[in-house]
Structure formats: structure tokens, C-alpha cells
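Protocol step 6 of 9: fold each sequence in the batch and record its C-alpha cells directly after the sequence line. For illustration, a two-sequence batch is reproduced in full.

Sequence one:
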Amino acid sequence: MSIRERLSGNEASATAMKQINPDVVAAFPITPSTEIPQYFSTFVANGSVDTEFVAVESEHSAMSACIGAEAAGSRAMTATSANGLSLMWEMIYIASSLRLPIVMSLVNRAVSGPLNIHNDHSDAMGVRDAGWIMLFSESNQEAYDNLLMAHRIAEHKDVMLPLMVCQDGFITSHSIENIMLEEDAEVKKFVGSYHPEHYLLNKNEPIAVGPLDLQGYLFEHKAQQADAMRNAKQVILDVAKDFEAWTGRKYSLFEEYKLDDAELAIICMNSTAGTTKFVVDKLREQGIKAGLLKIRVYRPFPALEISKALSHVKAIAVLDKSDSLNAAGGALFTDVTSAMYTHNVNVPTANYVYGIGGRDTKADDIELVYKDLEYIAKTKDLGIPYRYLGLRRWPKKDRPQWVKWPKKDRPQWDKKEEFIMPYNMKEVVATKKPHFTEGHRMCAGCGAPVVARHIMRALKNEDHAVVATATGCMEVSTFIYPYTSWDNSFIHTAFECAGATLSGVEAAYKSLKRQGKLPEDEHTKFIAFGGDGGTYDIGLQSLSGAMERWHDLTYVCYDNGAYMNTGIQRSSATPRFADTTTTPAGKVIPGKMQNRKDLAMIMANHHLPYVAQTLAMGDFKDLYEKAEKAIYTKGPTFLNVLAPCPRGWGYSTDELMNINKLAAQTCYWPLYEVVNGVYHITYKPPKKLPIEEFLKTQKRFRHMFKEGNEWMIEEFQAEVDRRWQELLDLEEMTNKTEE
């Protein structure tokens, strides 16, 4: 019997995953899909599922882990969005080519750049031909239902392809709707168990996965994938029929909403269908025969079925929430028009690109599209078929000549005369002082802006800097178009590559200097900032490469001990036992169970000329002096700076400096520097405080003080003591060697 609930789209997806109870979930946090693994990790921590949850260091690793898990014979799931899917791109193709029925929740978001966290379909469209089955979801209910059907489809013996369930970021993922949930036992019965024919853990049949596939076979293997995708269409229909018999909810390849006798039709996907249905109902009351075709199954594309469904209408508009940038229309438009041409259906069809980067699309906008279709149906004058909906237009003198219609009949997309803002920060940056200004949007009590301001103060007045940041709190809070908090040149590209990006800038500087294309008497310094997520984890490869290549730059990690920007998920900088949204302190698992990575030591073992660990304490002398040394030491240098987070750590904003002080006095965060391999501890507390003094100031550790959890504090103290003694030994040993 169905259970009535109220859930967001992300909650509904996580609930479906809980009921499916996959063997492995591997995920990395990215907005707006982050909540799905967060909710699911709570189920893991409380023992509600049997799943092994793998909190990986990047989306590339998330898909790689899912591939390994699925190849081993387990059922694997993940969730991601936008740039996360882009980073997976290589592995997305590999997953489908290996015929592994992984299931992914894709919460649709605009792909960079520039960086945007809101909804469009550019992520899904970027992998539309990667060999994944793609189901789109108008509502939270449909996202939930699609996930319940997903494994039955993907794991079918005639298919064996990965599958993604798409829903609109924030619009459905974070909106709460009424939803009908099925009982856990009934879900498990419907989904069934996974029994692959071939898998790595079968000792009776050793198999090899992922070969070099040369000219003799690759063509045939790709044809087999294509056959499997064609087979998926009937399997989807068969599973939907069984699902309807079980729940009463009916699904097909697409939904025809008042399309039977329609003269004007819109084709769209995901949440826009709900708005369009409202407009269709309104126009029907006015006697206008409007209809909607809502795509549910985008891959395999139901070309023949769509062509038949549209053959009787007089005018069609295809709405694309992603621009293919090909001068020939969006992806859905080209698929629809290709299908119609192939199947001899000739209906005037216009394309509207809309909603890019989360631009609102209201009922009034959809109504204007139907008015355009009325004119097209009446006059047979399609004009230019490639259009925009809701775009601020160019000034009239520069406006493209879309179509010469009478003014009274001119479509809505040719009426506005507003300017589009150019993506150019030169004028903005040129007028900003000092190096890191007020007006940023970091939280009160955050350690990161204190770190940035004092490090930038170490730059000499006569010197210029190029600053790079990894995606994170600092980037999204200091550079929101058209405003910036940086008065030096600044570049941001992506989460994982600040080190590589700044390497390119520094290489250009050396080349142009050598060729005499830059003034000899001008000096530029190169400074990168990254949080622990963008440094310890997803950005470690990029950082390590920049250090090893000996680029003359300074990398600053502002370490707040978790992925704070995306909602306080664990990173490898998160201390043991900390309560985060992906390592919640549950009944079975009491927080993060691994010790934090020691990144300063890792950098020291790159044999750099200067490495230091510091924090903002007292008069900031330690922080400032180390920053100056790092910036003005020739070669690659690294600073690891503690940057507490009031939201993630759980402290009052006025406690920032006290927490920094306690971190040093308990030796949780030792202050030291490594100069050409020689260790110098720059602060030795007169009286080393017990670690409880540091832990008790933060809500993330409060479960450690419950009765029966004393062992956690003891083990935490033992690890702090071990690392402090190791540092003391290194100081003694390296200074003796120097003598």
C-alpha cells in the first residue's frame, strides 16, 4: 500500500536508493545533487542499509569506483551534477562500453563556464550520446518512480547499460512536493536482486575487463552497444507496464498532454512540462487547441513514436534548456526534426533555447511561444527557426534580422532592446583597492577571509600578483559577476585545477619576460588559494604536478576540514570522529572513522624550498611572516593555514580567534616551517593543553563527550601526541644534519 509523504526531489531520490539498498554507493559532493549522498550517508551511519558508502575525492573517482564495484558483481549507484558529470566524462563512456548497469541520479545544472550553480540541461546534453539510458523527471514523484524502475531496465539481459535519472536542480531537487512512496518490502520485491552472469569476484570464472580494443573488434562492440540501446526501448515499456500494475502510476516513452486534437504543440523535458500544462489548460479554455509532448525517455530516443504523435499538428515549438552552440539549434530540436524528416512528417518547427543558468521561465513566457505558433500555423511563415526565450536582447541597431513580420504580429523574442552584459572584468578590477577588499560575502566568523587578507598584505606595494582560486567558498563569495573582492589579476577555472591553471599563467610570464614582451622592471607573483577539498582531494594531482615542475608560485590551502561550500561533507582533511553530512555521528558509525591527511608533510616530501603550517592567532605575526617568506622564496612554496568554519564546526562567530589559539595550544595544529628540508617549530606552547579544550568548543565533536564515548577522546589525544612527537623528532634530526 502506498504511503503519502512530502519530500524534496533529493530526499525522494535518496529514499528510493535506501529502498533499493545498493551494495555500493560512491559519491563526491557537488551542488545541487549533494543532498542525495548526504541523506543516504545518514542511512548508512544508522545501519538502515547494507551499503558500503565510498566518499571519494572527486567525481572521476566516484564513477571509477562504481565501475569497479559493478564489474565486481555488485549493484552500484551514484549522484552528481554539472561539472561533476563533466569530470566523469572519460569514465561515463567507459561504464557504458563495459556494459555495466550503474544507476546515477543526475540533478541537472549549468556546466561552467562561467561558474553557475543553477538549472539548465547542459550537463545531460553533454553526455547524450555516451551510451547511457536517460530518463527525465517532471516532478519529485517521477524522479522517485524512475529510480525504482531503473535497475529493472539497466540490468535486463538484453540491455546491460548504465542509466541516469535526471531532474531539475533546485526546481525539483530542493522543492517539497506531495509524493506517494511504496513500502520497502514491495520495492525490494519489484526491483529484485542483481545476479550478473560475469563478474570479477567469481573465482570459478576469472575474467578480464577493459582491454585494448583495436580495429578488429571495436566497431562490432560499438554496434552491440547500439543494439542494446535499441532493445532498451521495449524493456522500458515492459517495466513501466509492470510498474503501473503495481502502483497504478502510468509511464511511457513520453507523455501526450491534450495532444490528440492539438494544432499547436510544445515539446519539452523535466519541470518545464508542469508550467506548460498549466498554459495548455488556460489556452484550451480560450478555444485554442494547444498540446504538449513531454519527453520522459531521451535515450533511447523514440524517433518513430514522436513523429507519429506529432504528424497531425500545424506548428511545433521545441524547448531546449541548453544551447548546443552549433548555429543549428539545441540538441532536443535537432533530434526531433531529424526524426520527423526521416519519417516523412513535415510540420513547421521552431526551436526556443530558454532557462540557461536558471533563468526563470514563467507561464507568460510559455504562452508567448504558443502565440508565435498561432502565427506560424496561420501564415506558414516560420522565419528563422533558432530563437531564444527570455533573453535580454541586443540594442536595436545591432539586432539580428530574425524575420520581417508585421510589427503587430512580431514574436515576443524580437521585441526587447536591453543590453547583454559583456563578460569582461577589466574595468571592475582596475578600480578596486586594496588587495583583498571589504564587501565579500563570506560568513561572519569565517577564518578564510582573515587568511586571504593577511597573506595578500605580505605582497610588496610595488609588485603585482595573479591570484588563482579553486572553486569553493572563497571563489563563490568573492567573485560574483560583476563584482570582485580582488584588486590584483584573478582567474578561476574549476574545482580541481588551481595549481595547473596558475602553472600556465606563470609559464606565460616566463616566456613573455624572456622574449622582452613584458617590462623588465615589473615583477609579478603568483598565488593560488584552495580549500581543503580543492587541495587535499580533488586538486591534489594538480597541486603535486605544479610543485614537482618547480613553478615559481605559492599555493595557499585555507583548511576548514570539510567541503563547506557544498554543505559540510567530509574531506580527507576532516579529523577523526567529526560529524559531517556524509559522516554523520550515527548509531552504528560515530562520525568519520579515518585520521586526517597531513598535507603539509606531503608537501614537505616534495622537497620544496619552503613549506609552512600556520593560522591566524594573536597579532598575526606567524601568518604574515610565513606568507612573506613563501611569496618571496624562489620556486614552488606551500602554506597550510587553518581556517575554521562556524557552520561546519559549530561555534559562535566571536569564537574564531579563541579556536585558532586552542588549536595551537593543544598541538592539534602545530605551527612550523620547513626551509629546504630543515624543520623549525615556530610556536611551542608553554603548557600543552589537553585536546578536550579544543574539541569542546565545536558542535561537530559533541557526541564524543557523551557517556561511553571516552575512548574517542583518548584515541584522538593519542594521535595528536604522536604527530607532535614526530614533528619534534624531525626538528631535532634535521637541525642536527644542518649543523
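Sequence two, same batch, same settings:
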Amino acid sequence: MPLLSAQEDFVQRTLGALNGIWKKLVFTTGLKGDGGKYRHWGMEREHGVAASQEAIEAAHRALILELVEMEIPKVVYAAGGLVEMQKLGVKTICPTGLENCLRKHADYVLWTTQAILAAQAQAGCRAA
């Protein structure tokens, strides 16, 4: 029997090893396959497919909520030119089933961040 719940395991052990909200979001988004299902071999082996799916989706939702509560300059600074974030489409970084108004707000934050990073790159500067 695992010492940690699937949620605690994913947040503490997996996401805890990553620095910053963007790296956590990019990693979590990368676990989402076709059809919006998350796959993580170690989590599935330890907690089962259903519990792992639920835990990763909850963590992904929590990361999006954390992101949309941040001020745009802090979001841009946190991204700091993270190439992986710029390669992701705005829609792909949101978890499946996100409420429409929250998705729209997250889309706005993500699109704005990408636009600012692109403008900074074109101007040859970095987030302050």
C-alpha cells in the first residue's frame, strides 16, 4: 500500500522535482495524450490508471488556477523565455473539461504571455 495518495505523490514527488509553474505546466501537459487522458508509467504502476488519471488532472487544474491568479508581469517573468512553453499551443496547455470562462481566462493569460515573450525576443531583451 502506498504511503502517499496518488495526488500527494504526483504533487510532492513528481512536480516537486520541477522548478517554477511553467516547467510544471509543460511537464503535466506533456503527459496528456490523445483524448485528454494523462499517462504516467510510475504513477499507474503505483496507484493504478484511474487514480493516476484523476490525480494528474487535479494537479493540472490546480496549476492553471494558480497561473490565472498571478499578475501578467509575474507570469511573464516566471516563463522567462521557456522555449517549451512557446512551442505549445495556447489550447493544449489547459486540462480537458476546464469550465468555459476559466478556459477563456487561461487562454488570455497564455496568449498574452506568448505575445510578450515573442516581442521581447524580437527586441532582444529578457523579462525583467
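Proceed to step 7 once all outputs are recorded. Observation for sequence two: Residues 5 and 47 are 8 Å apart (CA to CA).
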